[in-house]
Amino acid sequence: MAKKILIINTGGTLSSVMKENGLAPGLSTEEMLKELRMVSGDTKLALMDFCSLDSANIFPEDWAALAAKIGELRSSYDGIVVIHGTDTLAYTSSMLSFMLHNINIPVVITGSQLSITHPVADAMENCRCAIYMAASGCPGVFVAFNRKVMLGCRASKIRTQSFDAFESVNHPYVAEISSQGMHIHKHVLQQRTGVFKLRPKYSDQVFLLKLYPGIHRSMLRSIADQGYRGIYIEAYGLGGMPFVRHDFITAVSELIDQGMTIVVGTQCRYEGSNLSIYETGMRSLEGGVLQAYDMTTEAAMTKLMWVLGQTQKLSEIRDYFSVDLSGEVTLPGTED
Ligand code: ASP
Question: Which of 86, 127, 142, 193 could be stapled to 111 by a disulfide with Cβ–Cβ 3.0 to 4.6 Å?
């Protein structure tokens, strides 16, 4: 029997048209149906227009509404494809990985660098890959782009213009398309360990801070004064932060003592952080920071937002960061 696939459109370049003020989303799923049918094989498509936004205009409340919609409709379809702008796609795919806990169908997010109406666009190829993955029967939240499929919580946009815009960071691809067809690396898929649970709560009181030589610790105080509950710090290299002259690490520890959750990761895209190597890391571990290890910034930020939406208890927040929820992190001692 033909697999039933729901296409949910949220906008982005894939559905864009030239308007008075530049390229902007404008096509509805109905208007893209001819192209979508050309790449949908023998699947049966259903269409839904969720919103029509450049993904710069996507906000956390959209993630929660999208997760709720997917949760509601998941039993009526074999798979769901979400069309999304590429700019914040990896934030959405990371957050959906947490909100759609143990999702029982494939949810595949895609977009493109050129509008589906463009004769040489990557849009058709990306939709083809996404629809094929959505019909695969492999549950989880994925990103499909440029003939590759990756875990939603490992995807990151690394190029602004090339068709090869997304990378699976610190994690192998879930599937690749070659002259042999689509090969799904089954061992890379996350094991579902329980029933589906929609968990759409989040906190938007989370700040992203990138370190640079000269950053002053007073910045931390003003973030706390504005009511933020969590900070994700993109520190240097393996996760180092300064403690001479501007004693940033002591300022971090003081905020933790006052109830702030601080997660430390790295500005380096690949290979992750490990605070146990250098003094510039060990001191902040002693001060109570949590480690992002090899998470992408998108995954670390959305995990922090999501965790602070689940609990206020510091011990529980710590517990959430000590486990791998959706494949987003490689914890020490669990490497292959
Ligand atoms: N600005 C667009 C967006 O994120 C870019 C794209 O879709 O590729 O919506």
Answer: 86
